[in-house]
Design brief:
By secondary structure, the chain is mainly alpha-helical. It is 67% helix and 3% strand. Keywords: Cell membrane, Membrane, Transmembrane, Transmembrane helix.
């Protein structure tokens, strides 16, 4: 969608909702695990929701609109090198930003999956803890704790990059991921706007329903495990 030729719609609404929902889940999971106690129930809820969001985004990377698709922005080392040497960035994620996106999806996804099998040896276990052996659960718990620092590091780099693009390059990235619109001067001439109509929403809603069903099924396995040990 053009906006008086001053902005171009790049980010569709489902992609933007995913982004901010994942932010809420990461912050919520971090705060709740530090508070501990009864807040650990919320830690599990945030983790399972983050898992659903990651699955949604991975699939949306194949069936979503142009700029959300991995085929549009994931490039090899040569493209990254050209960008670092000053080549113009395409609309959407630049080649370096694409690496950041994929890294965050990978580490947050691993954190969510590993959390399904963890235990604090007190009162909280992941939904699938009862379905694996003690050695597997112990390994997953260790990796889950270590990966927290990887996530913190990547998020810190992400925030520094956003600050650099905002203050030095004068690109309003935060506004873009809120409104979906990017300044026309920051994208190549003739860049087509992203599709954000009914067809996109129907795909997003159907995918969201399937992912929600998957997460609820995983949570139900926790109940089944509890019943088997009762």
């Amino acid at each position: 969608m053009q906006n008086n030729r001053l902005a171009v719609r790049i980010w569709d609404l489902p992609t933007r909702i995913f982004h901010w929902a994942l932010v809420v889940c990461i912050v919520g999971a971090f705060v709740s695990v530090k508070l501990g106690g009864l807040y650990m129930d919320w830690h599990v809820r945030f983790g399972c929701t983050a898992l659903g969001l990651i699955v949604f985004r991975l699939l949306w990377g194949f069936i979503g609109p142009r700029y959300a698709r991995f085929a549009h922005f994931v490039r090899g080392p040569a493209a990254v090198a050209r960008y670092l040497k000053g080549a113009a960035a395409p609309a959407g994620h630049n080649p370096l930003g694409a690496l950041s996106v994929m890294a965050l999806l990978l580490v947050v996804g691993f954190q969510a999956v590993s959390g399904l099998f963890t235990t604090d040896d007190i009162m909280t276990q992941g939904p699938l803890f009862g379905h694996v052996g003690e050695a597997t659960a112990s390994a997953m718990t260790s990796w889950h704790k270590l990966n927290e620092w990887v996530i913190i590091g990547l998020i810190a780099l992400h925030l520094l990059a956003v600050a650099w693009y905002t203050l030095v390059r004068r690109k309003r990235l935060v506004r873009a991921i809120i409104t979906g619109n990017v300044d026309a001067k920051d994208v190549p001439a003739g860049t087509p706007p992203a599709q954000d109509g009914l067809a996109v929403w129907l795909r997003a809603l159907l995918l969201g329903a399937c992912v929600t069903g998957l997460v609820l099924w995983i949570r139900s396995l926790e109940v089944m495990a509890d019943m088997s040990f009762s």
